[in-house]
């Protein structure tokens, strides 16, 4: 089992798909990494040599922010918005949608389960 950026990569999947298991690497970055290291997209992880795995690991370490560092960076950005007191920060603090979505009927994922309002019966 290959271990890249602190994540165990599934061995029986194609390299392009397996790299997306790393937080911060999507399909496009996975394709770029494979092209940079001259690895065919159809190859499986268990077919890679140790040198190729090391090359992938070094490419990711050098060029991409992934896993813990990325999570820390995102959380620090959200914390900065909250400390500033801007609208986006206030929406994060209240647990409401941040990007202008309606909340009258939707936004159940962000707001949580519906709460009954006493005395609203008609």
TrEMBL record:
Pfam families for this protein: Ribosomal_S13
Give the matching Gene3D superfamilies: 1.10.8.50, 30s ribosomal protein s13, domain 2
| Residue span of region Disordered | 98-122
Can you name one GO molecular function term for this protein?
tRNA binding
Q: Mind telling me which InterPro entries this protein's record contains?
A: Rbsml_uS13_C, Ribosomal_uS13, Ribosomal_uS13-like_H2TH, Ribosomal_uS13_bac-type, Ribosomal_uS13_CS
Q: Which GO terms describe its biological process?
A: translation
* Entry annotated with the keyword Ribosomal protein: yes
Q: Which SUPFAM superfamilies match?
A: S13-like H2TH domain (SSF46946)
Please provide the record's keywords in A-Z order: Ribonucleoprotein, Ribosomal protein, RNA-binding, rRNA-binding, tRNA-binding
GO CC, sorted alphabetically, is: cytosol; small ribosomal subunit
Residue stretches spanning the membrane? none
Query: What does this chain do?
Result: Located at the top of the head of the 30S subunit, it contacts several helices of the 16S rRNA. In the 70S ribosome it contacts the 23S rRNA (bridge B1a) and protein L5 of the 50S subunit (bridge B1b), connecting the 2 subunits; these bridges are implicated in subunit movement. Contacts the tRNAs in the A and P-sites.
Under the subunit heading, UniProt states: Part of the 30S ribosomal subunit. Forms a loose heterodimer with protein S19. Forms two bridges to the 50S subunit in the 70S ribosome.
Q: Which family does it belong to?
A: Belongs to the universal ribosomal protein uS13 family.
Q: Which protein, by its recorded name, is this?
A: Small ribosomal subunit protein uS13
Q: What is the lineage of its organism?
A: Bacteria, Pseudomonadati, Pseudomonadota, Alphaproteobacteria, Rhodospirillales
The gene from which this protein is expressed is rpsM
């Amino acid at each position: 089992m290959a271990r890249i950026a602190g994540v165990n990569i599934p061995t029986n999947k194609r390299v392009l798909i397996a790299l997306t298991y790393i937080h911060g690497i999507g399909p496009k970055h996975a394709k770029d990494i494979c092209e940079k290291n001259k690895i065919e997209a159809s190859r499986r992880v268990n077919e890679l040599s140790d040198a190729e795995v090391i090359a992938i690991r070094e490419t990711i370490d050098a060029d991409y922010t992934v896993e813990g560092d990325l999570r820390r960076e995102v959380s620090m950005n959200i914390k900065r918005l909250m400390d500033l007191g801007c609208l986006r920060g206030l929406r994060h603090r209240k647990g409401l949608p941040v990007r202008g979505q309606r909340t009258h009927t939707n936004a159940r994922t962000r707001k949580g389960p519906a709460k009954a309002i006493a005395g609203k019966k008609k």
